[in-house]
Amino acid sequence: QVQLVESGGGSVQAGESLRLSCAASGIIFSTSAMGWYRQAPGKQRELVARTTSSGTYYAASVRGRFTISRDGAKNTVYLQMNSLKPEDTAVYYCNADTFTRSYQGQGTQVTVSS
């Protein structure tokens, strides 16, 4: 049974930081591409950051402010979010791409007020 459990969301002021965590189980973490998506009210879900064996991708809107990282010993992927802006407000979802299919967690709310 695959589980992706996100944590670390919350409400902050613009300019502050948050770190999201996603603990994965039931997948081969070392060979899975891990990423974070987000969905704001009334908008489509978008890819924020993704890390694979080939490299790392960031959406243009977060590049330079967000950092994705992974800890293989803990089967956990992180998203460090600095200099948060009100437009970063969304539900953030952890995503795992395995050889057979993709999985997403339940999401964690991030709210940034100005």
Give an overview of the whole structure.
The chain has 114 residues and is mainly β. Helix content is 0%, strand content 54%. It is built from no helices and eleven strands. The strands form two sheets. Strands 2, 4, 5, 6, 9, 10 and 11 form a seven-stranded mixed beta sheet that branches. β4 and β5 (46-51) form a beta hairpin. It is globular, with a radius of gyration of 13 Å. The termini are far apart. The mean pLDDT is 97.
- Shape by Cα distribution: globular
Q: What's the mean pLDDT score?
A: 97
Give the proportion of residues in helices.
under 10%
**Structural class of the secondary elements?**
mainly beta
What is the strand content? over 45%
Task: Give the termini separation.
Answer: 40 Å
How many strands, which pairing sense, and closed or not: the largest β-sheet?
7 strands, mixed
The gyration radius over C-alpha positions equals: 13 Å
SSE order, as H and E? EEEEEEEEEEE
Features:
mainly beta, globular, 114 residues, seven-stranded mixed beta sheet, four-stranded antiparallel beta sheet
List the helices and strands and how they pair.
Layout: E1 3-7, E2 10-13, E3 18-25, E4 33-39, E5 46-51, E6 56-58, E7 66-71, E8 76-81, E9 90-97, E10 102-104, E11 108-113
Parallel strand pairs: 2-11
Antiparallel strand pairs: 1-3, 3-8, 4-5, 4-9, 5-6, 7-8, 9-10, 9-11
Give a short synopsis of this structure.
Helix content is about 0%, strand content about 55%. By secondary structure, the chain is mostly beta strands. The chain starts with a strand and ends with a strand.
